[in-house]
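Researcher: I'm preparing a figure for a lab meeting and need a structural model of a single chain. I don't have an experimental structure, so a prediction will have to do for now. The sequence is pasted below. Please return the structure as tokens so I can convert it later.
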Amino acid sequence: RMPGAHHEWAVQLDTSAAAVEEGARYTVYASIRVEASAEEGSAFSAGVYDVANRKTVGSMAVELDEIEGEGYQTYEIATAPLHGRMYIYVAPPQRPGEVEAVWVDRMWLVERQGAGNRE
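Model: Understood. Here is the structure written out token by token.
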């Protein structure tokens, strides 16, 4: 649970803990729910940051009017080649009084098979 009053990458998964196969392409997913009193505007952001190369390899942002219902929903964060010096993050929108909390239940990776899987 992250309060909606800040925008820090407060939920993170280190890819070294996920035992990724170096250079293999993965799609990153997260199960997230948002508590908000507002109906429009930013709900949260998420992405994959490459620490070794100091760059974001994929990111996304969700608006409140895109969320259906109050329960957890699955979001596709990014598809990219991963290695052990990266992290996956979720951040609330820094909207005190409008977004009360962003909840992350889990994150998972699905390795992509087939041609072009490795870079």
